Amino acid sequence: MKDCETYRPLLMGLLDGELDPATAAETNRHLIHCAACREEYETLRVSCQALERASFREPTDEALTALWRSPYSRAARMASWVLALGGWLALVLFGLVEFLRDGKVDLWPKLAIAAMVLGSLSLLALVVRERLHTYKSDPYNEVDR
Q: Helices in 54-106 by DSSP H: which ranges?
């Protein structure tokens, strides 16, 4: 069944018309002689036809806006932010403590890395504080963008 291993990955390409003429002809010749591959090809063809007949309704803009503004959506976004920032902070603090406890590293690199981490954390805090302050006093807060 080595031929089947060669031709099975080509069946979807044959259905979609993506194979070059020579490869399509070889695959069709294999399907004539191999009942197992022909059965799989027919199953794929039926599935593709069913998917083509399926229709999907797009949600309206109002429904998407209502979903975005729902309390659950806001809570999920806030929980995601808290988890992401909390995880990042815990990982940085763990790495910093382990780095500072290591007796093999000189004091200067430890101080330099500690300064970089503390500087990054203070910048993050300043940006979050500024964003919250701007959000509270934004006159265009209720305008849809």
A: 61-69, 71-101
